[in-house]
Design a protein that fits this description.
Layout lengths: L1 H26 L4 H19 L12 H21 L6 H8 L2 H12 L6 H28 L4 H39 L3 H10 L9 H12 L3 E3 L6 E3 H26 L2 H23 L5 H18 L1 H9 L2 H7 L1
Antiparallel strand pairs: 1-2
Helix pairs in contact: 1-10, 1-11, 2-3, 2-8, 2-10, 3-7, 3-8, 4-11, 5-7, 6-7, 6-12, 11-12
């Protein structure tokens, strides 16, 4: 029952989160810092109460290791959000971030000296082709939409290229963080909820460097049109309502993933998260009527089919359906 509830939390939380994030970004494209700060502050406060027990519980993993992980996590979060301010559409943003398998494999080969089967290399190639198709199609849309003048078109394309560079950097940094986290869990044991708390609490002082940007967007949020919250009946600026709902749905999504990691196998978690990304993409396209061509759909299918191939989900399903007698004979 808990796994089913967790899957429901993941899909409901993450898909709703995409809607509220895009509502925020469409109104103020540069609001990524205030969104990230609000998410970090809420999750850190919740973790301080229920995980750290008001600071009385000692961490199982030494703080110095969390400091390294937090530096990478903070950088990834800020860069990913800032990319939305660089002519990166939300669907491309989600597709590009789905290419984490590519970054994980590349760094796994370089750092951990891992070797993979030919089937996994083929799946990664399929993911790469899908991302390339979606990226190239989005590049054409950026140049065509900004063709009022040659200089405007070039400037828009240059910002878009910078956004692609930011996403690529964040993708590689996220993969490096995953490898570092994997080595920590092998050494100290798996403490995912503790890691969730420290990953969000320790970076909070870093937002001092972004204080002016956060304050400016808070002022802009205050000036947004009024909105009466259903049921409660309280009237607030609509941007603050979007931000509150974004933070709440992000927390629901994270809690769902956390329950899945404790109740299900890693393959199941990967499959659920992959399908969630696909559903979130469709929600974004349909709800906001984002431009999405047949080529985009082809690229998207390549990304998600390649991801499922990498997890070897079909082999696992075949094993689950095989008669118990055969499994007993193998053992």
């Amino acid at each position: 029952m808990r796994p089913l509830c967790a899957v429901g939390l993941v899909f409901a939380g993450c898909c709703s989160n995409v809607i509220f994030l895009e509502l925020l970004v469409r109104k103020h494209p540069g609001c990524g810092n205030i969104v990230t700060f609000a998410q970090f502050l809420f999750i850190a406060a919740e973790g301080f109460l229920f995980e750290a027990h008001l600071g009385t519980k000692r961490p199982a993993i030494p703080i110095r290791y969390y400091a390294t992980m937090v530096t990478m996590f903070f950088t990834v979060s800020v860069v990913n959000n800032y990319a939305l301010n660089l002519n990166i559409a939300m669907p491309l943003h989600m597709i590009f971030r789905s290419g984490s398998l590519i970054a994980n494999m590349i760094l796994g080969i370089i750092i951990l000296k891992k070797r993979y089967s030919m089937f996994k290399y083929m799946s990664i190639a399929l993911v790469s082709v899908g991302i390339f198709i979606c990226t190239s199609m989005s590049a054409k849309q950026v140049t065509s939409q900004s063709s009022l003048s040659e200089s405007d078109g070039f400037q828009a394309f240059a910002w878009w290229l910078l956004g692609i560079g930011a996403l690529t950097f964040a993708l590689l940094m996220s993969a490096r963080m995953g490898i570092f986290q994997e080595t920590l869990y092998k050494q100290f044991g798996k403490h995912s909820k503790e890691a969730l708390f420290y990953n969000h609490a320790l970076p909070l002082p870093g937002f001092i460097f972004l204080a002016s940007d956060i304050y400016n967007h808070a002022v802009l949020f205050n000036k947004s049109e009024s909105y009466q919250v259903p049921v409660v009946g309280v009237t607030v600026p609509v941007m603050w309502f979007y931000l509150l709902m974004n933070v709440a749905t992000q927390y629901v999504c994270i809690r769902g993933v956390f329950i899945l990691t404790t109740e299900c196998a890693s393959l199941t978690v990967t499959l659920v998260v992959t399908l969630r990304k696909f559903v979130s993409l469709i929600v974004s396209i349909l709800y906001f009527q984002n431009p999405f061509t047949l080529w985009h759909w082809l690229g998207t299918m390549c990304v998600f089919v390649g991801t499922l191939m990498y997890t070897e989900v079909w082999n696992s399903l075949g094993t689950a359906k095989s008669p118990p007698g055969k499994e007993d004979k193998k053992n």
